[in-house]
Amino acid sequence: MTSTLTVPFFRIPAVGVFLAATVACCQAADPLDWPNWRGPNYDNTSQETNLPESWDPAGGEGSNLLWKNAELAGRSTPIVMSGRLYTLVRDQPGTATEGEKVVCADAATGEVLWEHRFNVYLSDVPDTRVGWSSVVGDPETGRVYANGVSGYFCCLEGDTGKPVWERSLHEELGLLSTYGGRTNFPLIYKDTVITSAVVIGWGDTPQWSLLAKPAHRFMAFDKATGELRWLSGTTLIPEDTTYSTPALARINDQDVLVFGSGDGKVWSFKAATGEHVWSYPLSRRGLNVSPVVGPNGWVYSGQSEENVVGATMGAVVAIDGTKQGDLELGDEEWILPQEMVGKSSPLLIDGRLYTITDTAKMNIFDAKTGKQVGKRTLGRAMRGTPVYADGKIYTCTNEGMFYILKPSRRGVDVLQRERLGGEEVNASPIVSHGRVYLTTSEQLYCIADKSAEAPHQQHDSHTLAEPAPVVDRQVTHIQLSPWDVLMKPGDTQEYTVRFFNAKGDEIVDPQGGPELEFSVAGPGSTRSMSEAHGCVYAAPTDAQHECALITCKYGELTASARVRVVPPLPWEFTFDSRRDVPLTWVGGRIRYNLREDESGNQYLAKPVELPTRPGAPTTKLGTRSRMWMGSPELSNYTVQADIQMKTGVAGESSGPAPEFPVETSSSAIKLPSAGLINSCYTFTLFGPNGEARLYSWCTHDRRSQATVPMEFSPDKWYTMKLKVQPDEPAGVAYVSAKVWPRDEDEPSEWTMEITDKAPNYSGSPGMFGDSKDAEFYVDNLSVTPN
Q1: Per-residue confidence at 2, pLDDT binned at 50, 70, 90?
Q2: Contact of 149 with 142, CB cutoff 8 Å
Q3: What pTM was computed for the model?
C-alpha cells in the first residue's frame, strides 16, 4: 500500500547525582523494540542475548541471514516497533519524479507493508543524500514521525502510514536545507516530538526572539496535533548545519536533552521547556557526534573539526553533566585533542569508552580517566555508530567492512570480519527481537541465529514506567502555546498555559498562585478562558501582513507567543509606503533591505554581506537564501515582480554591510541570481550562468525542470512572472514562467513551461536570491489568484 503526499503543509541542598536513564513515558513499551535509531536508552546498547556471532551476506543454509531487501536500502538507520520496521529511502531514484518516502516492512520477513511518499522541494540537497534522517516511533501511540531532508515533517499512523499531521518547516519557520544534506533526527519526549535545525525565521529584534538571525534551534511539537509548544536555540550565526541526535537522560533529577550544536558547543537543555542548563565549547565548527551519558551523569562526545584553541583538529571529551551555566575550556573532566571522532558516536560499556575515528580507527579509553586501554584499525572511513548487545559489538565501516567484536581486557577480539563488496554504509546497526539489522547502499540485511533460544532482556531497565509524582510544586517557568502561528484576519486562536518547577517537571494544576494576566503587543485582542489556564486571541478583520505578541504574566513570570496575520490573496507590494521589509516574511528581514532611489521610489535590495554580531565582521553566509511570504496552503496563484541585477562586489569587509555596491572594473563584473517561488516551484534568473531556470529541486538534473539560455544586462529592470495551476484529478501541476524587459510589453508566450507528474499542489509564495557576488533589487511584487 502506498500513501502519497504531494502537498506538504500543516493541517492542523548539595546537588545530587542520579543515574542517567531513559526518560519514562506513560505506557509500557515492548522491551525488545528499538523505537529510535540510538535504541531505547539513547546509547546504542541493548540488553538482548542469544545474538549471532557470525553471518554470511550471500545467504543460504547456516548463513544466519534471515532476509535482505534492496527496496529498503539507503543511508538511514531503521527502527523497529510492534513487529514492524520503519525507514527512510529515496523514491524512484534518478527519475523526473524522484522524491523521498517512509517505508514500513514486516520486521520478521522484510515484506513491505506500506509506503508514504513526499516530494523533495525548495532544497539544495543532492539526491544521494536523501533519507539522511531516521524515523522515530512512539511506543505509547504506535505512531511514527519522519523528518524529510528538505524540511517536510510528518506524523503517520504506524499500522497504515496514513498522515495524522504534516508541517513544512522551511516555509513555516525557516528551516535551512543545504547541499550538505545534514538533517536532524526527531525524538519523543512524553507528549511532544522534538526536532532541530538551523532556523532563519521571522523577527529581527529581541521582542521576536531574533529568529531572523540563524541559530541551531530545537522545536518541540505536540505529538498528537503538530502544534509548536516551544522553540529554543543556541548561539546566533553558527558555522554549520549538523545532525547530532540528543541523548535524552535524567541528570540531577531532571530530564535533559544533551547534544552537539552547530555553534561547536555541547549543550544541555531541559527536555520539557527548552531552558538552557549548561554549554561547553568543543570546536569552532559544528558538532555531528551524538553524545552518550554515563551512569554518573558524565557526558562523552567528540569532534573532528578545528579545536577552540590552537591549530589542531579533533577531540574526545568527558564533561560532568551535573554542572550548570556556561562552562569553559578547563571545566571538562578530561579532554584528548587530535582524536578525530567526528561522525561515529561513542559507545560506553562497563566503564570504557569506545570511539571510532573518521578514518575507522577504534580507540578505547578508561571512561573515568581518559587513559587509552586499547585500539584496533577497522578500515579506511567511518560514518555509522556501533551497537553493543549480548557482550558483542556490531559495526560496519563506510566502505562495507563488517565486524563482530568482543570486548576484552586489552581491547577487542575479532569474532568475524566480513567484507560487503561494493556496498557503502552510512547507517548504524540496530538490535531488536533477536535480530541485527544493517542498512547499506544496496540492501537492508536482517541477521539472526535461527537455532538460538528466544531473545530476552537480562533485566527490565527499558520498561517505561509511570513518572513519579511531582513533589516540588513551586512554579519557576511558564509556557504559552502554540508558540508560533499564522492566521488570517478575523480568525481566533486558543492558547494554553503550562506550569513547570525548577527541574522542568510539569505542574498540572497549580493551586493558590497569582491570577493569569494576558496582553497583546500589536493588532488584535485577547480574552481569558475561565474554564482553563489560557486565553483566546482574535485577529482584527482588517489586518494587513501584521504581527502580534501574546504575553502571559503569572506573578513575576512571563511567557510569550508569536502571531503572524496575513490576509487572503491578492497581495501587492510597491514598498513606497513601507518603513521596512514586511515583518511577516520568513527569512525576509536582514536578508533584504529597504532602499530609496533619487526619485523617492522605494524597493527591496538583497545585499552582498550580512551583519553578524555587534562589532564583528560582516559575512557572506546567508546571501544565498530563500524567503517565504505566507501560508504553505496557498494554491493556484501567480507571482510577479520587477528585478534589477547589479554588478559584482568580491570579498568580505570588516565593517558594516555596505548600503550600496561599490564600483568594479569591467573585467571583474559578476551578476547575482534572483528568483520567484510559487507552490514549491522556483523560477530563477541565474546571472553567473546566463540562463533562466524553472524547477522545484535545483540540484536534481532529472527532476522536472526547464532551462533557457539568456543574457542579462546589469542595471536594467526585468519583469518576472511565475504561474502554477494544479490539476489534482489529472495528478499534475502546470508550471509556466516568463521574463521580459520592464519597459516593453508583456509577451503572450511563456518563456518556459513544465508539466510536473510529481506535482506540488500548494506552497507559500516567496523569493530566492544569491547575492554573494552582487546585489539585486526587487519592486512591484504581487501575488494574485489565477
Answers
A1: low
A2: no
A3: 0.94
- CA dist 203 and 255 (Å) reads 30
Helix (H) or strand (E) holding 170: helix 169-173
3-state secondary structure of 31: coil
What DSSP line would sit under 368-384, residue for residue?
Answer: TT--EEEEEE--S---S
Domain ranges of the chain: 477-565, 571-785
Give the residue among 633, 512, 639 at the shortest CA–CA distance from 566.
633
Contacts of 468 (CB under 8 A, 6+ apart): none
Please spell the DSSP secondary structure of 111-127, one letter per residue. Answer: -EEEEEEE---S----G
CA distance to 64, 406, 449, 452, 618, per residue, from 53 (Å): 9, 10, 9, 11, 56
d(CA 384, CA 375): 18
In Å, what is the CA distance from 747 to each residue of 412, 720, 744, 752?
72, 11, 9, 12
Extract the C-alpha cell encoding 44.
546504542
Q: Which are the contacts of 169, defined by CB distance < 8 A and separation ≥ 6?
A: 151, 152, 153, 175, 195, 197, 219
Residue 164 and residue 173 in contact, taking contact as beta carbons nearer than 8 Å = no
Q: Tell me what pLDDT residue 651 has.
A: 43
- What is the spatial distance between Cα 679 and Cα 632, in angstroms, rounded to a whole number? 8
CA–CA separation, 521 and 739 (whole Å)? 41
Report the run of H or E that residue 309 belongs to, with start and end. Answer: none
CA within 13 Å, CB half, 146: 33
CATH architecture group of domain 477-565: Sandwich (2.60)
Phi–psi pair at 666, nearest 5 degrees: -60, -30
- Report, as an integer, the average pLDDT of 564-592: 96
Taking only the tens place, the pLDDT of each residue in 441-458 is 999 999 999 887 766 655
- Average pLDDT of span 154-182: 97
Q: How many Cβ atoms sit within 10 Å of the Cβ of residue 578?
A: 13
The predicted-structure confidence for 197-207, as pLDDT tens digits, reads as follows 999 999 999 99
What's CA 405's distance to the chain center, in Å?
33
Q: Return d(Cα 440, Cα 452) in angstroms, integer.
A: 26
Neighbour-count burial of 524, counting CB atoms closer than 10 A to its CB (0-12 exposed, 13-18 middle, 19+ buried): buried
Amino acid at site 386: P
Q: What type of residue sits at position 101?
A: K
Which secondary-structure segment (H or E) carries 513? none
Q: What mean pLDDT is predicted for residues 269-287?
A: 98
How far is 642 from 742, CA to CA, in rounded Å?
Answer: 7
Find the angle CA(272)-CA(294)-CA(437) to the nearest 5 degrees. Answer: 85
Set of cell numbers at residue 128: 544521494
Write the pLDDT tens digit of every residue in 683-727: 999 999 999 999 999 999 889 899 999 999 999 999 999 999 999
Residues in the chain: 786
Taking the CA of residue 5 as centre, how many other CA atoms within 13 Å lie in the half-sphere pointing to its CB?
29
Written as one letter, the residue type at 742 is R
In 3D, which of 332, 301, 302, 328 has the Cα closest to residue 314? Answer: 302
In the three-class reduction of DSSP (H, G, I as helix; E, B as strand; rest coil), residue 707 is classed as strand
Task: Please tell me the predicted confidence (pLDDT) of residue 1.
Answer: 59
Q: Which one-letter DSSP state was computed for residue 780?
A: E
CATH number of 571-785: 2.60.120.560
DSSP string, 606-675: E-SSB--STTSPPBSTTSEEEEE-S-TT--SEEEEEEEEE-----S--SSSPPSSPPP--GGG----EEE
DSSP code of residue 589: B
Q: In 3-state terms, what secondary structure has residue 169?
A: helix
State the amino acid at position 337 in one-letter form: P
For residue range 606-618, what is the model confidence (pLDDT) as tens digits?
Answer: 999 998 877 778 8
- Cell triple for residue 361? 580507527
The type of residue at 782 is S
Per-position b or e across 387-415, b if 16+ CB within 10 A of its CB: bbbbebbbbbbbbbbbbbbebeeebbeee
